[in-house]
Amino acid sequence: MSAEQDMRNLTWAMIVFSVGALSGFAGPEAQSQELSRGERRALVQACRTDVARVCPGARPGGGAIAQCLRQNLTQLSDGCRSAIAVAAQGSGQPAGAQAALPAQTRVYRDIAYGSHPKQRMDIYVPDGAANAPVIFMVHGGAWAIGSKSTSRVVDNKVAYWLPKGFIFVSVDNRLLPEADPLVQAQDVVKALATAQEKVRSLGGDPRRFVLMGHSAGAHLLMLLSADPAIATRVGAQLWRGTVALDSAAYDVTEIMKSAHPRLYDRAFGNDPAFWLRASPSAQIRPAARPMLLVCSSTRRRSCAQAEDFEARAGTVGVRAGVLPVAKSHSAINEDLGKPGSYTQAVDRFVQGLVQ
Hints:
Elements: H1 3-23, H2 28-34, H3 37-54, H4 64-71, H5 78-91, E1 106-112, E2 120-125, E3 132-138, H6 151-161, E4 167-171, H7 181-198, E5 204-214, H8 216-226, H9 229-232, E6 241-245, H10 252-257, H11 262-268, H12 272-277, H13 280-283, E7 291-296, H14 302-315, E8 320-325, H15 329-334, H16 341-354
Parallel strand pairs: 3-4, 3-5, 5-6, 6-7, 7-8
Antiparallel strand pairs: 1-2, 2-4
Helix pairs in contact: 1-3, 1-4, 1-5, 3-5, 7-8
């Protein structure tokens, strides 16, 4: 077996133990059965350098690896921590298994917007919906993993906004390595156009959509929001605005020209022309939709990238605001909808768009 294969196996074993430890499940056997080959590959890409640095000389077996990673979680890169968190929530929870929904919620699952199994969406509709505003949600996961139906993506948001009369749409799209971020953005466009048409019969107003995305999902939506023609020329209607939950990938060119986690190499490659096309900051046009850029003040460069984008938006007369939040990258997604000033601030922006 090659040294590269040894390292791959070792890294995977480390990550399996860390996922098990973080998600509260027993061990690697259950995790390896739940995660797909593509998800395992994405985790290795995101975390290989981190585990080698944080736990040098570690070997598979026992609980030492899990303990090492758990004790040193803050030393892992944002990409690695995000990938582990997504895998933990996905592996510990079967698709569609969620907390109790608000009373009399109707759920329409796996609505197709294309022929690929990942081109699906779930729609959550409150009782009595009529001309209802719609939140259209795209999950994160380093452009490589994640699910529309996991708890962190759905539960608190549905619990908060459905009783306020909103419909909530949660979307899957094709992922790396099958689809690069620009192809993923086109999937999101197709999903948006389909959702706008579908909600007509479910009590929703296709003219009152608010887009919301976390991490990689926020990046995809910001590409569309920076230049709405990407969406409208293939049939989607204009939406009211966008909430980006801790993207930190507004200027891909800047990221790729400086030290960065390996997950960005896998997503964006080595072509500067591609970096430019994948940078919302480079694509912003005067027709861009209003945006709220939520950023984690605990992450290096997250708020700085958001502030740089806000300044760039201002030069072309586009409304963009930055909301720094002292929460982790994962908590910014999961905690939205829980009582508190963070949810209230996002809700003020959303309500202002749909009135």
